[in-house]
Amino acid sequence: MAEQSAQETAVVLTLPTFDMTNVNVWFAQTEAIFQAKHIHSQTARYAYIVEKLPPEIAADVLDLLEAVPAHNPFDILKEAIIYRTGKSHERRLHDLFNTIQLGDSRPLQLLRQMKKLLWKNSMSESLFRKLWLDKLPPYTSQILATLPNDLDLSRIAEIADKINDVPNISSADSPVPTDAAMMDVIEQLKQQLERLSTQVQHLTRAEDKNSYKVRRRSHSATRARRPMLCWYHRNYGDKAHRCTKPCTFKCQPSPKASRKAGNVDPGST
């Protein structure tokens, strides 16, 4: 049996690269290759698998590498890898979303730590970028959010480091307003606008009233100054032969009557 195992391990195999995102599929592929190459020995299969393990996964099953199981080493190693990397996968994502924070690290260091935790897990670039930005100080993330989306994330992290190097940028003297603070400012502006609108309406109404009073007084004064004429004098003037009251028309003496009045003999009076 040992001789058969040695012969099987001497066979040159090209196994697929270990796939952390789907360990079960990777094992299915490797076992299919073992079957095709007639490699049935547990020891030989164990040896081939150990050779393809990445350092991170090998560290998770180090106890099985230091002390090779006496019976069914391949099956035991396979089961341990599937179980332990599954837990490691969940732990990595949990740390990525919840545990890891900027702390005393620089933004570029945080990015590298997050990439290490993500490892080969699938996540869109935009989601990973947003997750990283959310862990930065607000004043930094707001500035970085204005950068082009196609700019390399490592380059953005370098810019973030330079922003953090600016003295007192995060001091209380220059705080970046939060959404709640911005909403308070907007609400105050709305209230001020409403008060100004009310004042303008009051002023407009008062002006309209004053204008109406002035027009009434002016109309009354005009009517008071205008002579009250009856229909006859309004239409015929001094040629009218009749007059109805009230009428303020004053007859103008004719030139002939004026001359007669001027030629009266004083002695006759």
UniProtKB/TrEMBL annotation:
Transmembrane segments: none annotated. Keywords: Coiled coil. Residues 15-96 form the DUF7041 domain. The keyword Metal-binding does not apply. Residues 179-206 form a coiled coil. It holds the Pfam family DUF7041. InterPro entries: DUF7041. PANTHER family: ENDONUCLEASE (PTHR33327), RNA-DIRECTED DNA POLYMERASE (PTHR33327:SF3). This is DUF7041 domain-containing protein. It comes from Acanthosepion pharaonis.
